[in-house]
Design goal:
The protein is of the alpha+beta class and 81 residues long. Helix content is 16%, strand content 38%. The chain starts with a strand and ends in a 6-residue tail after the last strand. 17% of the residues are buried.
Length: 81
């Protein structure tokens, strides 16, 4: 089962594998730096759950849950230290 950014829990990190949208939304997501291979970390979510705050490429970015459902990811493995 593929996961999306919408499925992440606070503090989880993942690697973007692809985008499930097209047109203007796809261009907007890419312009924000969310491209395949980018590492994202879910930092916070609003009290009602929407929007969510991500850390990507060294900056904090807030996006809607509807946008997060279009960003496919694979969870990063934790380093067993």
């Amino acid at each position: 089962m593929e996961k999306t950014v919408n499925d992440l829990k606070i503090g989880q990190s993942a690697i973007v594998t692809g985008l499930g949208c097209s047109g203007a939304l796809r261009r907007r997501i890419i312009d924000m730096g969310i491209t395949p291979g980018a590492r994202v970390i879910l930092r916070k979510e609003a009290p009602m759950g929407d929007p969510i705050e991500l850390n990507i490429r060294g900056y904090e970015l807030s996006i809607r849950r509807s946008e997060a459902r279009e960003i496919f990811v694979v969870l990063e493995e934790r380093d067993p230290a």
